[in-house]
């Protein structure tokens, strides 16, 4: 085997500059784009600062006060604050902030509460579930068998009576309630007594709606019968890309299982810089979360109404389109999800194609998913949602050239690049899309 020759410093510096240029191009694009990905959000200046702190370079395996490395006294202080903020915000006795993503948090729950071969209740992917509950995701990795709930595709909600029959017949050990296309709260109060009857643990994946829960604008799963909540922390909770476990339990055995599921179960070092940024984000959500969550939902419902008035098939019109940050739009008449998402990105509007009930191919679905967390974080309100719907209409119904729509999108976005609902933004006219190496 021939070993390739080593590149010289000049070659590698050119590669580094190419990487920096790509990141700068990405930032320039998003500075002028309308971001409507439901699973994305923006960090505050204080939280973003901590991502490049020395915490990034350190290890802190274990729990505060019980580390396997020295030099963690300040890490312990920050993590204890993070844990207390999480418990206070979600009004629960247990929190663990060591999972490094939402899927890793899901794996921790599966590691803690199941054995290979156990049955676990969940939604189907085409009914909005996240890929971690699929056989090729975290469920398959743990070797559990999914038991799918009955789903009403018109209301985008569980069929409660049919689901109760399935639960009583299949008797899963663990029941997961959580979606990637998350429009409405789950009927947890109706289902919780059945879980207790069959001896199943209630588990809620709140990745998409964590900030809405913390802001009092969705549902409160830990007080509606769920025992454990797992989530990522960068969607409607505008924090870093990280994970969290929350529990409405003081059972020491269950707490030990969940903690062991996180470490050493599925994590080693838990990305201390992101944990510190999460602590800041939780504090900011305590201060601003109610207003932010309320406007996020209002923006989503306003955008749904404005799109519907312009002839788009926004799902669940009779239900008010959504009670979350997310909309589902069937765009079969406009060419399908893939074609529409590509046309929109060429026009400076960032969305994603998405499976809808009845779809067979995740690559060629008939839907697109829209979300309002990021545009709300930048200060947009109802008026801007109507303008965004007009851009959709011009592009997908009236045949406006993408470059014309992109120009209008940049014009709209130009007034919304300063973060809201956080500390530090106004002190230095902080602009989120500041480019790396712009000077």
Tell me about this structure:
The protein is of the alpha/beta class. It has two domains: 47-282, Aspartate Aminotransferase, domain 2; 288-413, Aspartate Aminotransferase, domain 1, CATH 3.90.1150. The protein has 14 helices and 17 strands. It has a seven-stranded mixed sheet, sandwiched between helices. Helix 5 (138-142) links the parallel strand 5 and strand 6 (145-148). Helix 6 (160-170) runs parallel beside helix 7 (188-198). The longest helix is centred in the middle third of the chain and has 38 residues, at 272-309. The protein is globular. The mean pLDDT is 95.
Q: Topology of this protein?
A:
Elements (H helix, E strand, L loop, with lengths): L8 H23 L2 E2 L9 H7 L10 E2 L2 E2 L5 H18 L3 E3 L5 H12 L5 E4 L15 H5 L2 E4 L2 E2 L4 E2 L1 H11 L3 E4 L10 H11 L2 E5 L4 H5 L13 E5 L10 E5 L4 H15 L5 H38 L3 E2 L11 E5 L6 H10 L2 E2 L1 E3 L12 E5 L1 H5 L4 H15 L5 H12 L26
Parallel strand pairs: 1-15, 5-6, 5-9, 9-10, 10-11
Antiparallel strand pairs: 2-3, 4-12, 7-8, 11-12, 13-14, 14-17, 16-17
Helix pairs in contact: 2-10, 3-10, 4-9, 6-7, 10-13, 13-14
Offer a concise description of the structure.
The protein has 439 residues and is α/β, with parallel strands linked by helices. It is 43% helix and 13% strand.
Q: Work out the radius of gyration.
A: 22 Å
- Widest sheet, order of strands: 4-12-11-10-9-5-6
Assigned CATH superfamily of the largest domain: Type I PLP-dependent aspartate aminotransferase-like (Major domain)
Total number of strands: 17
Identify the CATH architecture of the largest domain.
Answer: 3-Layer(aba) Sandwich
- Low-pLDDT sequence parts: none
What is the general shape? globular
Figure out the total of helices.
14
Mean pLDDT: 95
Distance between the termini: 45 Å
| Biggest sheet layout | 7 strands, mixed
**Which band does the percent of strand residues land in?**
5-15%
Helicity level, as a percent range?
40-55%
Q: What is the name of the CATH class of the largest domain? A: Alpha Beta
Total domain count: 2
Annotated CATH topology of the largest domain: Aspartate Aminotransferase, domain 2
Quaternary structure of the protein:
single chain
Helix and strand composition category: alpha/beta
């Amino acid at each position: 085997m021939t070993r390739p020759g080593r590149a010289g410093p000049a070659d590698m510096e050119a590669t580094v500059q190419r990487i920096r240029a790509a990141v700068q191009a990405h930032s320039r694009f998003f500075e002028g784009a309308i971001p409507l990905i439901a699973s994305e959000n923006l960090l505050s200046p204080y939280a973003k600062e901590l991502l490049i702190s020395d915490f990034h370079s350190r290890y802190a395996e274990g729990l505060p006060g019980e580390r396997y490395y020295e030099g963690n006294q300040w890490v312990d202080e920050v993590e204890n604050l993070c844990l207390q903020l999480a418990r206070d915000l979600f009004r629960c006795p247990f929190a663990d902030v060591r999972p490094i993503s939402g899927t890793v948090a899901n794996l921790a729950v599966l590691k803690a509460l199941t054995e290979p071969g156990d049955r676990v209740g969940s939604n189907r992917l085409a009914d909005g579930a996240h890929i971690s509950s699929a056989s090729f995701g975290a469920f398959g990795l743990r070797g559990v068998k999914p038991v799918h709930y009955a789903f009403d595709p018109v209301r985008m909600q569980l069929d409660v009576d049919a689901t109760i029959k399935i639960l009583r017949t299949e008797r899963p050990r663990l029941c997961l309630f959580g979606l990637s296309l998350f429009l409405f709260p789950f009927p947890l109060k109706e289902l919780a007594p059945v879980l207790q009857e069959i001896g199943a643990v209630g588990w809620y994946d709140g990745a998409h709606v964590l900030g809405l829960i913390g802001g009092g604008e969705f549902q409160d799963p830990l007080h509606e019968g769920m025992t454990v909540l797992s989530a990522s922390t960068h969607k409607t909770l505008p924090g870093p890309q990280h994970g969290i476990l929350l529990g409405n339990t003081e059972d020491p055995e269950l707490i030990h299982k969940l903690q062991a599921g996180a470490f050493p179960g599925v994590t080693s070092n838990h990305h201390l810089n992101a944990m510190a940024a999460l602590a800041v984000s939780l504090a900011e959500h305590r201060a601003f979360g109610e207003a932010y969550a309320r406007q996020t939902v209002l923006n989503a419902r306003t955008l749904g109404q404005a799109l519907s008035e312009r002839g788009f098939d926004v799902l669940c019109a009779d239900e008010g389109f959504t009670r979350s940050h997310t909309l589902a739009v069937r765009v079969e008449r406009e060419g399908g999800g893939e074609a529409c998402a590509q046309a929109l990105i060429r026009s400076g509007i960032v969305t994603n194609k998405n499976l809808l009930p009845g779809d067979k191919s995740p690559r060629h679905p008939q839907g697109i998913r829209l979300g309002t967390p990021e545009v709300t974080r930048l200060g947009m309100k109802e008026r801007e949602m109507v303008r965004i719907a007009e851009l959709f209409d011009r592009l997908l119904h009236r045949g406006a050239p993408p470059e014309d729509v992109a120009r209008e999108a940049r014009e709209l976005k130009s007034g919304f690049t300063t973060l809201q609902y956080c500390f530090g933004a106004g002190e230095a006219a902080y602009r989120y899309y500041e480019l790396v190496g712009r000077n």
